[in-house]
Amino acid sequence: MNFEEINLNTLPKHIAIIMDGNGRWAKQRGKIRVRGHEAGAKAVRKTVEAAAKLDIEHLTLYAFSTENWNRPKSEITTLMSLLVRSLRRELERMTKHNIRLSAIGSLGKLPANVQQELEEVVKKTALNTGTHLTLAISYGAREEIKQAIVQISQKVKNNIIPVENIDETIINEHLYTQHLPDVDLLIRTSGEVRISNFLLWQIAYAELYFTDELWPEFDEQSLHQAIISYQKRERRFGKTSEQLT
Ligand code: IPE
Ligand code: IPE
Ligand code: MG
Q1: Residues whose CB falls within 8 Å of the CB of residue 97, separated by 6 or more in sequence, listed in order
Q2: Is the CB–ligand 2 distance for residue 16 below 6 Å?
Q3: CATH architecture, range 10-140+181-232
Q4: Is 213 in the pocket of ligand 1 (CB under 6 A)?
Q5: Whose CA is nearest to atom 2 of ligand 2?
Q6: Which of 6, 62, 102, 229 would suit a FRET pair with 209, their CA atoms being 20 to 30 Å apart?
């Protein structure tokens, strides 16, 4: 157990995870990729419940990127139906654990049944006050920033926002994550050391944590490990170490 090593007073407020390695996990076991995604769904459940147990305020999971639309059609179809099944299956547990669900991304590009299921779970968990779980689906950070620029430009054109008023707060207010604080801890599994178009603006000062574990292997212990690593770091935000004390 590594739970005792966690300081409950300095938990990250917002944890974001790039859940990578489902395909490799399946391949290592001589299985088809779908099995990896199914195992990945179980890891999602474990991780969400572990975060809820710690009372982490915000957990954002990268489930499907704008670039993932370029995968074989059959894999996309399986991922979408797995998503619908998981949402249906998890609603009860989310309610039990007081978890509130949101979704960010180009949600309009998702198949109608996925959109419906999402809307339903979002609505049914809206009043829950525990961990706020955000699924990034059909999400791309560049797309998110682009749509913010378009919205702001339109407001400038219509004299709703004077150009000189554009600041970081206004930009934040036009991102999909307008209701979320900046990411404190970003985790990526599977040994890849890249961001893959995830939350580019919001991770400006996040602590990055990379682990070789494949996503289906990730569990409560793994989350604790990441948090312990986070808590050992000094977040200086540009200041000197001396200024912090
Ligand atoms: C992450 O696992 C899940 C999604 C991107 C949807 P991958 O499917 O990317 O697994 P690898 O990277 O091929 O092992
Ligand atoms: C990133 O994983 C997207 C998700 C985890 C949903 P990918 O497996 O798609 O990333 P790349 O293509 O290897 O960078
Ligand atoms: Mg991958």
Answers
A1: 48, 49, 52, 130, 131
A2: no
A3: 3-Layer(aba) Sandwich (3.40)
A4: no
A5: 20
A6: 102
